[in-house]
Design a protein that fits this description.
Blueprint: H1 8-20, H2 32-71, H3 76-85, H4 92-101, H5 103-113
Helix pairs in contact: 1-2, 2-4, 4-5
């Protein structure tokens, strides 16, 4: 009778699990049980931080727009209000890029909003 090797799928599953834990510290990268626990925590933080990134980026755009607007003698809230009244639909991401890299174009937008 020939020998039957068993546990192929289980071994593949454990190897796939340990492949995700590359760079973890201590036994969290080499032992299956600790690795599974560490990955569950890591993936939950990863999910939450993808949501948090959107909030922090919008906050950063607001800071950049406010700084550029104050250099031109207007506050952020008044600028956004004037843009809405003038029906200029530029999102905050584009405004922040223009404020940082093309101040002359940003100034033209300010003038057209008044």
């Amino acid at each position: 009778m020939t020998r039957v090797k068993r546990g192929v799928r289980a071994t593949q599953r454990r190897k796939r699990l340990l492949k995700h834990t590359k760079g973890f510290l201590w036994t969290r990268k080499s032992k299956t049980r600790q690795a599974r626990e560490a990955l569950l925590h890591a993936w939950s933080f990863q999910f939450a931080d993808r949501k948090k990134k959107k909030r922090t980026m919008r906050n950063l755009w607001t800071i950049k727009i406010n700084a550029a607007a104050r250099n031109n003698g207007i506050t952020y809230s008044k600028l956004i209000n004037q843009l809405k009244k003038a029906d200029i639909q530029i999102d905050r991401k584009i405004l922040a890029v223009l404020a940082e890299h093309n101040p002359d174009v940003f100034k033209q937008i300010l003038e057209s909003a008044k």
